[in-house]
Design goal:
The complex is a heterodimer of chains A (542) and B (328).
Chain A (H helix, E strand, L loop, with lengths): L5 E9 L8 E10 L4 E5 L6 H9 L8 E9 L2 E2 L5 H7 L4 E4 L13 H12 L4 H14 L5 H5 L8 H12 L6 E5 L7 H18 L2 E6 L2 H7 L2 E6 L2 E7 H6 L4 H9 L15 E13 L13 E13 L3 E5 L6 H8 L7 E6 L2 E2 L5 H4 L6 E4 L13 H11 L4 H14 L16 H13 L5 E5 L7 H18 L2 E6 L2 H7 L2 E6 L2 E7 H6 L4 H9 L3 H8 L1
Parallel strand pairs in A: 3-8, 3-9, 6-7, 7-8, 13-18, 13-19, 16-17, 17-18
Antiparallel strand pairs in A: 1-2, 1-4, 4-5, 9-10, 11-12, 11-14, 14-15, 19-20
Chain B lengths: L2 H33 L4 H9 L4 H11 L5 H13 L5 E2 L4 E2 H36 L4 H15 L2 H15 L17 H39 L2 H8 L4 H38 L5 H10 L3 H29 L7
Antiparallel strand pairs in B: 1-2
Helix pairs in contact in B: 1-12, 5-6, 5-8, 5-10, 5-12, 6-8, 7-8, 7-10, 8-10, 9-10, 10-11, 10-12, 11-12
Classes of the chains: A alpha/beta (542), B mainly alpha (328).
Chain lengths: 542, 328
Amino acid sequence: MTDKLLQISKLDIALPEGSERDLAVEDLNIELSPGETLCIVGESGSGKSLTARALMGLLPAPHVRVKKGTISFCGEDLTQATEPRMRQIRGSEISMIFQEPMTALNPVMTIGVQIDEVFRYHAEMSQSERRKRAIELLEDVQLPDPKQIMAAYPHELSGGQRQRAMIAMALALEPKILIADEPTTALDVTTQAQILKLVSDMQTVHKSGVLFITHDFGVVADIADRVVVMQYGRVVETGTVDKVLNEPEHTYTKALIASVPSLMPRAPRPRSEQIVLSADKIQKTFGGGKSFFGLGKPNRFVHAVKDVTLDLRSGETLGVVGESGSGKSTLARCIIRLLDSDGGNIMLDDVDIRALNRAEMRPLRTKIQMVFQDPFASINPRIKVGQIISQGPIIQGESRQNAEARARELLEIVGLDERAFNRYPHEFSGGQRQRIGIARALALDPEILVADEPVSALDVSIQAQILELLDEIRENMNLSMLFITHDLRVAAQVCDRLAVMRYGEIVETGATSEIFKNPQHSYTQDLLAAVPGKKWDRKIAG
Amino acid sequence: MNRSSKIIRYVSRRLIQGIPIILAIVVLNFFLLNLAEGDAVDVLAGEAGSATPEYMEEMRKKFGLDKPLPVQLAVYLKNVLQLDLGYSFRHDMQVTELIIDRFWPTLILMVSTILLAVGFGVLLGLFAAINLNTWKDSMVSVFALITYATPLFWVGLMMIILFSIKNDWFPTSGMENSAMFYEGFERVKDIAHHLVLPTITLSLFYLALYTRMMRASMLEQYGQDYVITARAKGVSERRITFVHVLRNALLPVVTMAGVQVGALIGGSVIVESVFAWPGLGMLAFESLFARDLNLLLGIFLLSSGLVVAVNLVVDVVYCFLDPRIEVN
């Protein structure tokens, strides 16, 4: 007699021929007991998501399949189960929530219908009974006005609300196992904290086993009972959360944990007196436009940036932190003149660059450069790396020879091989591309670097390397940096000063260490309280 | 404000916006047509065989063709605003009367073509996507490729040879057998019988287009996250295909169909000529060579109105298909 809900033993999952490696998951052994939360941690490509898919019988067949091993669910081997049987299990005994609440729901079906499907396929209930249960579920996951949500389409809900609706759906029939595949990665920290609490509350009520897949050690510290660390499809370490987080044995686990940015802000550095950039009362609104003949309602009006004032001094890194929709990216784009702001002025060395036209702005572009968030979308895939980097200086009148020589130098500075010069961007990984993006920005010898979430698309170990690189460059080239981020851990490690933004306004500014020690505004306090893994951090620090 | 009153507001606003668009089209067409050499008097005189320059001058005066272009335009616009499209000297009839006479055959042909092309295109695309990478899928793809690549007039001629001459199944030309003086249902049957070949000919090309589009759109939707969510709920593959994926996959096809209605009017010229279908396409073609500008402008006006109206209908349909689209 086994009291385990789930026992995976010696599981191999094969990748299609010609892939980077033969097996996505190799010799995997995992156990899950009722009421337990097991976290599978790993970086992208570690095979953690495919493990979850294999459990559900949802591997992208026929290319990816279970090669050998057993998945025993309450004594039943799921690798041998028929498709009708699997369909029965899915949604009722094992259910799953996904990473992207934006795309995981059908955009043209109401929430009510989508929840109803779970009952329709697994339970014999009358329509009115099903509706009653669905409304109860929405109440359970603390959605406001469940009746209205039933009739709403996914696009009418926020990301957090959609994830709640997903959880309601997953928990509809009190499954024995809930699989959560990075369910909070796409959410803001405060929402993430609420969703994590909801999952653990639900687990206490239903006594289900939770298999939680994540790359975030902070989340692990907050919710896990036991942890499995995966790398390249193999389990490198398993154990209780205390043991793995505080006394990791495997070198990979140690390295991963070491690259998690600490919440302890770094020691403040003396502040220079010289202001290199100052923005005064910047305004930016989107939407507007006139309605036609007075018919139709006036268009929606979004005040993305409201009266934002900030100073950037020589050699310092100013962090702009806030959740999605706070206007931080819009602000960055206004400052670098990718967007035209509606009011205020932006002084760069005594010139108000807000008033300049395109041609007048061009020579000043060398002084202020940007590093973008998405290393895949922000680089033209049809142009060779060398050209990407040397293009800027050539436009500014540098000779091709000099520009290319400088590009080669820069490749070295950002830690890439000189041979990268003649290659196309697709040959590089995300982290390497971000290095290319940084080299491109540096090619013009800027005084100011605006970095818009430069590490949020990267794995934690790569993230640490890029942050280190940015730090190094800032030291060596005496750059001042405007660093946009939503991640307070990253902000703590990189920024000398912080500006906290919400709804387009700066609610608090100050030295990073001051803000972390003694946040003044209630929103800053909420943000800090929501960062996952705080207790764990204190444990390491103390 | 509720949805239906929002839609009414939206439709009325779009209708008002349509007026300047149509007027602009009229002005543009007027100048474009006048760029062509010769006028109706040249053609009439040429056909009569003998006409003195004085007589031609007199005719021009009578038709109002002696006035400078801007004046002619102003007169024409004034008449259009009073819903008077002028007089066709060629046909000796009011243009309005003539156009409305020929409008119904074209409308019948267009509506049946669109229904056939979109309907069968969607079904075939769906069928191919469900049977992906099997011989059924390949059959559909080959069929689509062949019909896509074959010229319209050739298909029309082959249809006539095959189904009218070799096998006397369908009539070769015309819209109805006027010698029989059918009434009521008999007449409808007769017209339907005549309609078969032109409709198939005109719709084949579009059918192929929609088939390919629908197939691609279905496959794209199958790859979306919500499909995995539905599978993870234990929903059957049948429901995933016909409820989850189908509706999402239809959206681009509907958009495309709306855009192509305009092109369809152009395509109908060929088919109407081949099958001697007494529609607007034929009329436009004839009036172009007769330099019957009044008539031509009238036809253009009607077709542009039609395109504007169809686009509006598509937009409203789209609102119902896709809840994310909000009318405002």
